[in-house]
Amino acid sequence: MNTEKGAGDVMRIRFWRAVWVVVLLVFAGALAGRAQPHRITDFNRGRTRSLSTPFPEAGTERDGVLYLPARDLQHGYELWRTDGTPAGTGRLTDLCPGLCDGTSGTLGLFQGWLYFLGNDSEHGTEIWRTDGTAGGEELVADVCPGSCSPLLNGWTVWRGQIWFLAQKSYDAIPVLWTSDGTRAATRPVASLCRKLSICDFGPYTSAFLAGPDPSRQGLVVGVFESYDAKSLYRTDGTAGGTVLLHRFADQGSGYGEAATAPLYFLDGSDLWTSDGTPSGTHLVRGLNGLVDFVPLRSSTRVIDGILYIAFDGGEWLRSDGTAEGTVVLANVGPGSNPTVGRIGGSVFAVAEDGIWRTGGSPETTSRIDWPFGLIQAAVESAGRLFGLSYAEGGSGAAVWTTDGTLAGTRKIHFDGGPQPDSYVIAAFGNGALISRGARELWRIDGTSGSGERLHAFEPENGGSGPTDQIVVGGRLLFMGLASPTSHQLFSSDGTAAGTTAILATARDPYSELGANYDPAYSSLTRAGTRAFFNARGRVWSSDGTREGTRIWHPNPSYAGFRMTAPIGLFEDQFVFSGILDLDGNPHRCPYGESEPWVSDGAHVMKRLLNLNPFHYESYGICENVGLSSAPGRGVPLGRIALFAADDHVHGRELFATDGTTAGTRLVADINRKQRPIDDPELMPRPPRLIGLGSDPENLVRAGRRIFFTADDGDTGRELWVTDGSYRGTRRVADLTPGPGSSKPRNLVAVGDAIYFFAAHGTGDGLYRSDGTPGGTVLVSDLAGVSQARDLLAAKNGRLFFAAFTEAAGTEPWTSQGTAETTHLVADLRPGPRGSSPQNLKAVADQLVFAADDGTTGLEPWISDGTPEGTVRLGDLSPGRDASTPGPFSIANHQILFGADDGEHGRELWAIPLADLHE
């Protein structure tokens, strides 16, 4: 890529950004005033069941404020904060706008900043930091450039720096990194396997950073080279400062706390200790005879230099690093995996059936009587324990606190009584925080012993949807909730009177679906003039009316049936990829064997053919376990439809069907390379060699041909085209010559040609192809763009897409098929974060989409491809909260979409098309 050209483009982007901000302010009020979205429905006015558990135990406390991951119905998992009051409890970030998850947990504190794992949808999950204010977050490290997410294997502070171990993928080499907390000074220090030479197993090594060694001269690193090889090292990040502390004879486990106390670890049944030097690493004693079982994991705690460890067999052991000082204190119960800690001056172990205390010897170890059933979890806070218990059978939940004596043990009282599902707990202030009922955050006051609700993540008015929608017969069909316990298929003409529920779609919607309903479960899709979807274990079809919605010819002997992808509609026959559930038959259970099925909706529903006939003989309740050909979504081409499938002979290749068994055939074996197979349990008569398969993807029809991407085994993944015949199937161009892949994607048809993105230089380029090598050309090198996505074509061939640059983040772009007309539309969120455009939908010659301008959250926008014609269509959920609008569909001269205004839950909204052109 031309560096000078790229730098110039970045400067132009910054200049036009300033201009566009002024232009947007001038024009926004006028256009927003003429096109106001309005809410159509409020079907569900009760609570919506959601899996919105806050996780206080995954948080970090700073200055009396706990920062924790939590999820609400508008934003996915993000970073929240609480100071222990309802008013001081709220969402801090919307790092990944929309329902995607922006954080998975905090890492720790460093120089006044809180560090956490974050995902902004552009960089994958990386290390971020925040100053604790809204909008005060920033990216620290992009370990794996692009949208990939590295594996973070340990994070610690040492010698005034942050240190962490990361792998770009499971098969990548572990690398030690350091940082002063800023992105500019975050850098890799050393490859464990190359520079430090502390692993021999090649790229499949994994490692874990335990923390500074006891002398604080280096960092303790555990290296796992295979199932049989594991070593412990100390390193300061240089080859000369890296020494082997111990090579394990067994898999080993049980790293102790290594900051200010000796490091303890287990090697099989032997207990070892180390001061961080090879000479100070020695065997304490073998534990055979003291404990019955040495687990891979155990509960450990180092207190004042003494190791306390509880084994799965129930033995609670302490060690001072000598053989004589290594003794079993008590048997606290097998399988309890107790928590070990300290209350005041006493060391304790919280087992499943009670609390044990010790003065450091078996004679001073005793169990207090326990009145509250089986203990699930406990945490230390302000010299007390706070915990959760259940009565036998899992009922009768109790939250309690204790000072380690029966007299000092009392139950915590909550308004509304106990709720026994999915508690999690964390120490906080003088008490604790509890995720109560999985969907509420409560604080336990350690002084009064009472509970107070800080936030309810299930709103009183939870909303009905939609989450999955399609247009059929001029009406919108969508899945949603008619009430907290009634999941329905709705039909709408875009008016309140014309929006009705036409089918109850789930037998047990409260437990099965709720607000986290998975659109893939229904597979709501269109074929011809009808919609097809899954409901009640059957395949259904609908023309958009109650009368025209019916089961697509069920067989009553089937326990359940699920469509995974439509393949094609041939007159009155619908061919699709289906999974038959035969749990009702104790002699056969194919475990999700997906094959092509066909139905005429009246008389016949059968498997079209067993494209992958191979299976395993099984035992127990199953007669055999069939392998799946897993047909993908089909694309029609004249009287046939093309789809990808794996017949376990050629690998995953391109197939065609005309809706009959005889007319279902392999189109082309694109990747003829093979691999040997030696599986005596595979039946019947397995081949000795099976194809690797080209894995056709991105099938798009343009005129009389279908374009797709495939890997022939020699030239990597490139662009291909077919007319449905063997001779008419060929590679279009090798855009990245040789075995490398250009990875074409986001194929979109404009007439008989297609546009698509493919690798170009260090980023993405926009290409056009008419299906010939000479007609496949670079439209724009997209200078400065490292990632482009969501390409679509509007009226008159105008293209819209989202693209990421370091200067502007991800913003909307447009093109009219030439380099000169390919550019950023508008920088909606000035700065490097980007507005994260999503749910892009072409409406005539304009684009409707959702975006976050950094002030109003994720809201609906419209663009005609110019800065002045790009404006927000209202702030449906006022303030920083997002309405998370989309997807957008056009029906009855309106744009219909789901949105959450923060008051009525997620409901159906509309924008009349006429309002967009006034």
The backbone outline, from C-alpha atoms, is globular
Helix content, binned percent: under 10%
Distance between the first and last residues' Cα: 44 Å
Give the class from helix and strand content and strand pairing: mainly beta
Largest sheet: 4 strands, antiparallel
Low-confidence stretches: 1-33, 507-520
Mean pLDDT: 86
Question: Could you explain how this protein is built, in words?
Answer:
The chain is mainly beta. Among the domains are: 53-140; 150-247; 696-781. The strands form 20 sheets. A four-stranded antiparallel sheet has the order 1-76-75-74, with no helix packed on it. The chain is globular, with a radius of gyration of 31 Å. It starts with a helix and ends in a 6-residue tail after the last strand.
Secondary-structure map with pairings?
Elements lengths: L2 H32 L3 E2 L20 E3 L2 E8 L3 E7 L7 E2 L11 E8 L2 E7 L5 E6 L6 E5 L9 E8 L2 E7 L7 E5 L7 E5 L14 E7 L6 E8 L2 E7 L7 E5 L15 E5 L2 E5 L7 E5 L12 E5 L2 E5 L4 E5 L7 E5 L7 E5 L2 E6 L2 E5 L7 E3 L5 E8 L2 E7 L7 E5 L7 E2 L12 E5 L2 E6 L3 E5 L6 E6 L11 E5 L2 E9 L2 E7 L6 E6 L4 H4 L6 H4 L2 E3 L2 E6 L2 E5 L7 E2 L8 E11 L2 E9 L12 E6 L5 E3 L7 E3 L6 E3 L8 E3 L2 E7 L5 E6 L7 E4 L5 E3 L5 E2 L5 E3 L5 E6 L2 E7 L5 E6 L7 E4 L11 E6 L2 E8 L2 E7 L6 E5 L4 E9 L5 E7 L3 E7 L7 E2 L13 E6 L2 E7 L5 E6 L6 E3 L16 E3 L2 E7 L5 E7 L6
Antiparallel strand pairs: 1-76, 2-3, 3-4, 4-5, 6-7, 7-8, 8-9, 10-11, 11-12, 12-13, 14-15, 15-16, 16-17, 18-19, 19-20, 21-22, 22-23, 23-24, 25-26, 26-27, 27-28, 29-30, 30-31, 31-32, 33-34, 34-35, 35-36, 37-38, 38-39, 39-40, 41-42, 42-43, 43-44, 45-46, 46-47, 47-48, 49-50, 49-56, 51-52, 52-53, ...
